[in-house]
Design brief:
alpha+beta, 2 domains, Umud Fragment, subunit A, 6 helices, 4-stranded antiparallel sheet
Amino acid sequence: MPPVAPPSDDLPPEDPPPVGAIPVEPPPPDPPYHGARRVDDRDDGAASPVAAPAAASAAPDAGFLARRRAKRAAEKTAKRAKPRRKAPWWELPALVVLAVLIAIGVKTFVVQPFYIPSQSMEKTLHGCSGCSGDRILVNKPIYDFRDPHPGDIVVFDAPNGWNDEPANRPPSNPVVRAIRGFGQLIGFVPPDGLVLVKRVIASGGQTVKGVAVDGGRGGEVLVSDHGAAGPWKTLNEPYVYLGGDPGSDNDAAARFTFGPVTVPKGRLWVMGDHRDESADSRFHCASEGQEGSPARCNPMSSTVPVDDVIGKAFVIAWPPSRWRTLGTPSTFESAAAPVLPSAVSAGVVVPIFLVRRRRRSTGAPRRWRLRGGGGAAAARRVHRIVVGADRGRGGR
């Protein structure tokens, strides 16, 4: 057997290229890449380069943000370096004048503060000696839209002869008088003259009278809308305060007994809540130059013209411990029922009534349906409220 030659690494020489063949250059080597690498199954675990879009796109974004921050910092620095514009000299006086004009407008047309100097409205309004007098706010335009209602606490200029309570007198010093006048103009100082605050008991067309009870230690006020023949309604007045010296039984009975008095149109019968210390309509039954008594009361001298009413007191503004609103007592609610809620109710009821008539005339189904459990239950409740009357029962 002939001997076998050992394998050799030497390869046989390649055949020369044929004549006319075009030489082919080898492809260029891949450029070096420093990004992420992955393991390729085809290369026995060797790592091969892959694209890294997140890292590649982060570089331009970071540069853009850096330039943006630098631009903003430069703008702030330039703004701080720029000198500030000084306000013109007339700006502060103009603001003061504007504030004064606004205060004058509010005091003249909207709300005006008043100070309570007497105890005629205790304990609704404090004004007794030794206690801090209340400051109230008065709504001035309300009576441009309606007349005063029974139960309203009104502020009014005292009619002729109603000078039994203290009035504010102007000072003699001209400088103090000028300052006081400016304070009155903007509403911080009470006006000169006699301005009173009382509660409206009866308005034009109503008849009012008072009777003494408990042997003259108390009294009741009765109001009739149909003249002295009645029927009469006895007012429930929990706001009344009896804290003065009643004197003799005859004097006490005289304070609570008056009338009947029919209030003329355009006038008001007013009384203070402190019935023992209030010089109100009861004490002005006699006209000037004539004799009178509560039993024979002059309806003109004892009442206040609506035109003299400044406004309605609606809140105690000072002191803070006394903050509260001044509403209408329940005993007057029927007489002072506002017109606006009635109009709103009519505006809601009439469209519903018209819709019901239209649905009946067109033969449309009357039962409403909504998708969803809660909506369906709500629809059934609305249906029972609106059209339940046709079935002889109301909605719940």
